[in-house]
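Query structure, 194 tokens:
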């Protein structure tokens, strides 16, 4: 599935958060240890098992709290609302509700870097034909939320599906065929096509 897991660390306090632990918890713990980071949050962009499968193991090893959107049916210790700021030492993590791929989907913005989960990939977007998927909502999330961010905001997706591992909002605006100018209606139709 080529999931990406992200480790965000605050250099001042050594506090850290993992976005979507996915599969390889041992590796995450090793990198954290090497960088003297203490993982206190596990943030799930959404409730799909390929992203959350490592939650329990990581929580067991670190005592971290699970952060997920308030509509997530998964186990969570902190219920997030759209636009909420999660403090991680001196870092501020902004949680942006971006439903469409799933109702509970959110992106994480920190220091000009955006973790986009399965809402936006490099050159692609997440599918909307799974249970809870909704193309109209994804349109709103992509065009009215993510594409309104500055062009130089870096995009770090939940899967390695593109020609490169990460990009920028500006790159996606120009190169991502999903993000060509469309009305919401046209986008819904476009997402129906194979
Ligand atoms: Fe997903």
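Result returned for the query:
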């Amino acid at each position: 599935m080529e999931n990406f897991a992200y480790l965000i660390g605050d250099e001042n306090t050594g506090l850290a958060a993992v976005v979507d632990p996915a599969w390889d918890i041992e590796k995450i713990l090793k990198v954290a240890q090497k960088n003297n980071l203490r993982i206190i949050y596990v943030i799930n962009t959404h409730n799909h098992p390929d992203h959350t499968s490592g939650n329990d193991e990581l929580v067991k090893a670190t005592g971290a709290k699970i952060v997920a959107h308030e509509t997530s049916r998964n186990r969570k210790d902190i219920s997030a609302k759209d636009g909420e700021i999660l403090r991680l030492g001196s870092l501020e993590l902004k949680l942006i509700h971006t439903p469409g791929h799933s109702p509970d989907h959110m992106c994480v913005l920190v220091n000009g870097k955006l973790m986009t989960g399965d809402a936006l990939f490099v050159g692609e977007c997440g599918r909307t034909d799974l249970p809870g998927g909704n193309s109209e909502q994804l349109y709103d999330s992509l065009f009215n939320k993510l594409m309104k961010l500055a062009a130089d905001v870096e995009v770090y997706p939940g899967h390695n599906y593109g020609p490169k591992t990460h990009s920028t909002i500006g790159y996606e605006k120009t190169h991502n065929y999903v993000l060509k100018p469309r009305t919401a209606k046209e986008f819904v139709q476009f997402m129906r096509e194979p």
